[in-house]
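Schema walk-through. Below, the input block comes first and the output block second. Nothing else is stored per chain. Lengths vary across the set, and this one has 95 residues.
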Amino acid sequence: MSHFLVLSNRNDTVLHGVVCDVIHGFKPLEADAFSARYNLTKCVYHESYDEREQALARLAQFSKWSRSKKEALVNASNPTRYDLTAKVYRKEEHL
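--- output ---
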């Protein structure tokens, strides 16, 4: 199982998509250099896929979107930008 995540910083000023194969033990700052540089510590959106290629395709699609479209996606499911990291961890543990 692969996961498409949208990470944000504490002030919700940056949205950045990443793909990871294992959520359990995942720390957002370890995702990539961009995440570390902009202190992206919150997971504000999550999708699971059976195949890594599907998650990578979603990441490619997301990366091409405008900021307003990215914000609309996140706001539709998580308007308060609550950190979903703990919820995603619990979901992964039950799979």
